[in-house]
Specification:
Elements (H helix, E strand, L loop, with lengths): L2 H13 L5 H5 L1 H11 L13 E4 L6 H12 L4 E5 L5 H6 L2 E3 L5 H11 L3 E4 L5 H6 L1 H22 L2 E3 L2 E2 L23 H20 L2 E7 L1 E3 L11 H12 L1 E4 L7 E5 H13 L9 E3 L3 E3 L1 H8 L7 E4 L3 H7 L8 H6 L8 H28 L1
Parallel strand pairs: 1-2, 1-4, 2-3, 4-5, 5-7, 6-7, 7-11, 8-10, 9-13
Antiparallel strand pairs: 10-12
Helix pairs in contact: 1-4, 6-8, 8-9, 10-12, 10-15
């Protein structure tokens, strides 16, 4: 579903290696160069990192696996979750069952597969977490304890995403700097602050190579998964199907956002950055900030008779405690982060992607049934 965007992103990442055309054509030389360029820090042999992705069947996991496999090889990136995968997922590369609450099971995976990097996506999102706090505590806090301890024990480089939800009503909202008061009011936000602090503690106490990016709302064509910023995904699906959408936030609710391609590229660049280049272990990253009414204005160019009504619900109070504009100047300064997508080209890509991979597919299925 993300073939066009992924092809573009993978191509950019490969271009950054500055391989000559002759080298690209010669698979042996290409593999040798990859091994030199992407060797595991401290490893006695030059080889690509072996990467485990937890929570791999969520919004980011499958596309992250595709990107990492394009850089490090199919067999070096293992996708995992507790959900039965589709055949497409199985066809694209290694997939295993991994329960982040089972520490011994995680140890076996790391040892048997010789894991070097751990990308930890397993989490209950903001709105879902509020509906089941005990489960959110287990998955988002106990699960993080397990993977952090695992990374310390086996000297892994570990990435744990954080969020704009790690901030609260006492935080400055426009802009929200990298270091400021946080004090979130959701279990999702509390668990993410906990992850940031425990990761930094393990870095200072044990030398753990912990890395964390605070993502804004991440927009992709996948159906929404329970986040407060998911209106910015749902509106494309509903508008292109019916020309109508009921928004659960006020029209003037400004929130930071990022297109999935920028999100995954930030993750890859951050994981590749030399440790000595990082002045901190947790960074804000973003691309844009917009309101529902600003998004509707752009989308109306594709759906001229779009009708949107606003009925704020419990998610409004969550959004009101979050940043409006994210300050990611530290990431831009320390490891040279630069976004590619603004609101205009985000809407362009989303309309094409949702139309081609969801609306047209559904219409084709309905047409087939009529024949």
């Amino acid at each position: 579903m993300w073939r066009k965007c992924f092809t573009s992103l993978a191509g950019q990442a490969r271009t950054s290696l500055s391989l000559s055309p002759i080298c690209v054509q010669n698979s042996v030389l290409t593999q040798l160069l990859k091994r030199r360029l992407h060797q595991v820090p401290g490893s006695p042999t030059a080889r690509p990192p072996k990467i485990l992705i937890t929570g791999g069947l969520g919004q980011l996991g499958i596309e992250c696996a595709k990107l990492m496999r394009s850089q490090y090889g199919n067999d070096n990136v293992i996708l995992s979750d507790i959900i039965k995968p589709s055949q497409e997922v199985l066809d694209n590369g290694p997939y295993i069952f991994a329960d982040i609450l089972d520490f011994k099971g995680l140890q076996k995976i790391v040892v048997n597969h010789r894991i070097d990097w751990l990308i930890h996506f397993s989490a209950l999102l903001s709105a879902v977490g509020e509906q089941n706090v005990p489960l959110a505590v287990r998955v988002n806090i106990e699960g993080v304890h397990n993977v952090i301890e695992l990374a310390k024990q086996y000297k892994l480089r570990i990435f744990v995403p954080s969020t704009i939800g790690a901030f609260g009503p006492d935080s400055p909202r426009n802009p929200t700097p990298n270091v400021t008061i946080q004090r979130p009011r959701t279990i999702y936000g509390v668990s993410k602050v906990h992850a940031e602090l425990i990761g930094e503690y393990y870095y200072h106490k044990f030398g753990l190579d912990f890395r964390c990016l605070r993502f804004p709302g991440v927009i992709s064509s996948d159906p929404p998964g329970g986040g407060t910023t998911d209106y910015a995904v749902a509106i494309f699906h509903e508008a292109l199907r019916s020309g109508k959408y009921t928004c659960y936030l006020r029209p003037d609710t400004r929130l930071p956002m990022m297109y999935i391609e920028d999100c995954l590229r930030a993750l890859l660049e951050f994981m590749r950055a030399p440790s000595e280049q990082l002045k901190r272990r947790v960074y804000n990253v973003t691309a844009m900030s917009f309101t529902p009414e600003e998004l509707v204005d752009k989308l109306s160019k594709y759906v001229p008779n779009l009708h949107v009504t606003y009925k704020p619900d419990s998610r409004q109070s969550i959004a009101d405690s979050w940043p409006q504009v994210f300050d990611d100047s530290d990431a831009r300064s320390d490891w040279h982060w630069q976004h590619k997508y603004d609101l205009t080209n985000l809407v362009d890509f989303m309309v094409k992607d949702v139309q081609e991979n969801y609306i047209n597919v559904e219409n084709g299925e309905r047409h087939t049934l009529k024949i």
